[in-house]
Description:
Blueprint: H1 6-16, E1 21-22, H2 25-28, E2 46-47, H3 52-65, E3 69-72, E4 89-92, E5 99-103, E6 108-112, H4 117-126, E7 129-130, H5 143-149, H6 156-159, E8 166-172, E9 178-181, H7 195-198, E10 207-214, E11 216-217, E12 221-229, H8 232-246, E13 250-257, H9 258-267, E14 281-289, H10 296-309, E15 315-318, H11 322-334, E16 345-346, E17 349-351, H12 357-371, E18 376-382, E19 387-393, H13 400-404, H14 407-420, H15 439-442, H16 445-458
Parallel strand pairs: 2-4, 3-4
Antiparallel strand pairs: 1-2, 5-6, 6-10, 7-11, 8-9, 8-10, 12-14, 12-15, 13-14, 13-18, 16-19, 17-19, 18-19
Helix pairs in contact: 1-3, 8-10, 8-12, 12-14
Keywords: FAD, Flavoprotein
Cofactor: FAD
Protein name: FAD-binding oxidoreductase
Amino acid sequence: MPALAADLLKRFAAIVGDAHAITEPADLEPFLIEHRDLYRGSTPLVLRPGSVAEVAQIMALASETGTPIVPQGGNTGLVGGQIPHNGEVVLSLSRLNRIRSVDPGNDTMTVDSGVVLEQIQKAADEADRLFPLSLGAEGSCQIGGNISTNAGGTAVLAYGNTRDLVLGLEVVLADGRIWNGLRSLRKDNTGYHLKDLFIGAEGTLGIVTGAVLKMFPKPREVATAFVAVDDPAAALKLFTVARGKAGAQLTGCEILPRIGIEMVLKHAAGTRDPLAEAHPWYVLVELSSPLEGADVDGLMQAILEQAFETGTVRDAAIAGSIAQARDFWQIRLMMSEVQRSEGGSIKSDISVPVGKVAEMLERGIGIVEKMIPGVRPVPFGHLGDGNIHFNFSQPVGSDRAAFMAHWDEVTRVLDDLVMELGGSISAEHGIGFMKRDLMELIKQPVELDMMRAIKQAFDPKGILNPGKVV
Length: 470
């Protein structure tokens, strides 16, 4: 795109004040680099508005002048959706960081979009409630970004995706108008549910500036187990047993490979192996109940006893304290991060029906191992909802750049397998820039027509996060 005129940049800067209009190259850098170093963007200006009114003024000026805007939260996205690939102005929501209200009686919290997820979790905890969205980047990601990407995380099995945790939204539209949809109702059957258009839209339809979030009763009793199994098929059998015995009290079920455990133990300080002997695969199982005195420990014992009797489980450790349970979860949450220390990592975020997870893993690993001799498969993730982060680390001693050159080839064969199994090429990371060109292959023409019609209706000038999603 052509360079933006200096006088126009000054008009934008005047809205937020010079202190919050970033132009120096060194100061711009953190807003331009994607977390995995896959993309490096460019921009002449980052705007950091301090109010919804300033966001509205920015978008009104952008609409008037046809200036493209890229909204950005904590810059933790993994598909390049938050990066200005073509010199667009970046609109950072980080100063909109106020928790507006907490209503324990209605089990809701109203927040600005720039509030960091971990702060929302803590605010809910202080109100003796739970906000269940939890993911590895929760210390830096912002709720507006979580909403705009419909983030998943480790609690989807029990509580659903971000979409299921949002009751209302406040959104600044492409022309600068503000839609106040901050409703806290559980039931409101009055026409189109407009909020759902913005959840998962990755900033292409409007800029989320506020949200009403659901809170839940805090778990009073929790049991956490780190369980060893021979293979993903056995992991699925364990999940079936746990779901059958625990029902809604099964609130976490994650699958982890041995190689991932070893990477965490090697690179994450303070971690230790939960079991005395190494096993090929592991399942992290969590049971919880909001009821005081609920015997989730006994229920966990019953699940494991049945699994041991059928030969499904090889070994298990049940957390004896809250601290030990956190240690178990820390291993899971660090699994993505530590792969950076092992060189290049080709990553896919995919999902299939739960019953086909084992087939996907077996076939996918076999295909990629034939393509790249010595490659190290590190698939892990949300067994209970069929979402696996299908990652591959470079062979030991190989050249990083040469390995990463296989990204498109590996992604293509895995996507083909996932589509064959009735799955999705993006389970929780979104489409962004990385997967935009795949939409023609995975969506029916009528679906794309509807998506483009919605985009045209909400953003007729194409200034909101251009080049992303559709």
